[in-house]
Specification:
elongated; Immunoglobulin-like; alpha/beta; Aminopeptidase; 37% helix; disordered N terminus
């Protein structure tokens, strides 16, 4: 009886172990099927954010798990293409609405995988494309930094792409890009920016003279004088009465790989009797309260034209602040000094005529830039000069002389004087 009981207990224990093993096996199979099912399931694109302007953009695309992404460039039009595994896109229409440097956003299934296509407003460079794990541990994101460039730089990136694999795998935290490329045969290039235009007339004199008309007339005169020299390529951000956002003016300068951007303005001021020209360069901190007030007025022009500027994205703000590069700033300061010297021979200047402030239009990262206030429309004598063809000719010639000195110095051929 005792032996039979022991045997029954042994068989019961063995049966229990068999059931436990079978249960564990079934659990393993189920987990395996779940893993296979998850691997076969589409990747989930859960969020899309895009911030920046026509010169610099950051795009962040969030996924439920780590994406395997390859990217490449196409032209006609300029596009960035991201190839992904099969992806279920759950993105808001408002989030993918084109803005800034990006003219169109398209995405969808491609049979064996999915594709996201970003069409640029013009040529651009991919400064960085990373796959990063989200800080909260929930999923991953692709972060893309793009900046406006020239057609030559875009073509160089395409050529570099064709010499490698035809596409580039996204790095996890690393930097990608082709780096600077030399421009054989590049002529010294000047972009002239007539301030304001279209719905944004700018300053207005008591007699009704409007800044946008004064700046366009002067910019046209300056363009013609620079073209007569025959050594420069000269472009204007606008040659008619049209509105251009400030970042679009910067994009045009970068598009042409400008060696110099000259923005032309004519302000008004409440200080009676103040008159004369001023040359401004970019700085984080204004040189004086008047310079800060002027920069604030000019920078608000996009809002006055119905285009609210949002600067609440910390990462994009950091990118914009980083645009102030030491070499470009040094060249800007050098040209400003030369320009003040040349203007002083033919044009009346205010006291301390070389000033600085945080003008958005001067924030091209690699284009030396100055803003020239030709005079004050609030002063009758300055207004009369600004409307005088003879005065415009002399002032334009002074700027042309300064450009010649600066171009020669930059080329290393200046011989002095």
């Amino acid at each position: 009886m005792g032996l039979a009981g022991s045997a029954d207990k042994g068989r019961g224990a063995a049966g229990h172990l068999r059931h436990l093993a079978l249960g564990l096996l079934l659990l393993a199979v189920l987990l395996g099927f779940t893993a296979i099912s998850r691997a076969d399931a589409p990747l989930g694109a859960t969020n899309y954010k895009m911030a920046g302007d026509a010169t610099k953009m950051r795009i962040v695309l969030t996924f439920d798990r780590e994406p395997d992404v390859k990217w490449f460039l196409l032209r006609g039009p300029n596009r960035l293409v991201l190839d992904l595994p099969r992806t279920r896109f759950a993105l808001g229409a408002k989030d993918v609405k084109p803005r800034g440097l990006v003219r169109a956003v398209r995405y969808g299934d491609q049979g064996q995988g999915s594709r996201l296509i970003l069409t640029g407003k013009g040529p651009f460079s991919v400064d960085k494309l990373d796959v990063l794990k989200n800080d909260d541990g929930g999923g991953y994101r692709i972060a893309i930094d793009m900046s406006a460039s020239s057609e030559r730089e875009f073509d160089a990136a395409l050529a570099n792409q064709s010499l490698t694999t035809g596409s580039t795998a996204a790095e996890k935290g690393g930097r990608v890009g082709t780096g600077p490329v030399s421009a054989p045969g590049h002529r010294f290039t000047v972009v002239i920016d007539p301030g304001h235009g279209g719905v944004d007339g700018g300053a207005e004199s008591p007699a009704g003279t409007i800044e946008k008309n004064v700046t366009l007339a002067f910019a046209t005169e300056l363009r013609d004088k620079l073209a007569e020299v025959g050594k420069y390529d000269v472009y204007m951000t606008r040659d008619s009465d049209v509105y251009l956002p400030l970042d679009e003016r910067v994009r045009i300068a970068r598009l042409h790989e400008a060696d110099l951007l000259i923005s032309i303005h004519a302000d008004t001021i409440a200080v009676k009797g103040l008159r004369g020209a001023t040359v401004y360069t970019l700085s984080d901190k204004a040189s004086d309260p008047e310079a800060q007030a002027l920069a604030d007025r000019e920078n608000l022009s996009d809002q006055f034209a119905g285009m609210k500027i949002k600067d609440d994205d910390k990462e994009v703000t950091d990118i914009l602040i980083d645009l102030i590069r030491r070499e470009t700033h040094s060249f800007s300061m050098s040209f400003a000094h030369t320009l003040v010297g040349q203007l002083s021979t033919n044009v009346g200047l205010i006291n301390n005529p070389q000033r600085s402030a945080g003008f958005r239009v001067l924030k091209a990262p690699d284009v030396p830039s100055v803003l020239v206030e030709l005079g004050y429309l609030s002063n009758a004598k300055d207004e009369a000069q600004l409307l005088s063809a003879d005065w415009r000719g002399k002032a334009a010639q002074s700027i042309t002389n300064a450009v010649a000195l600066f171009a020669a110095a930059k080329a290393g051929t200046a011989t002095g004087g």
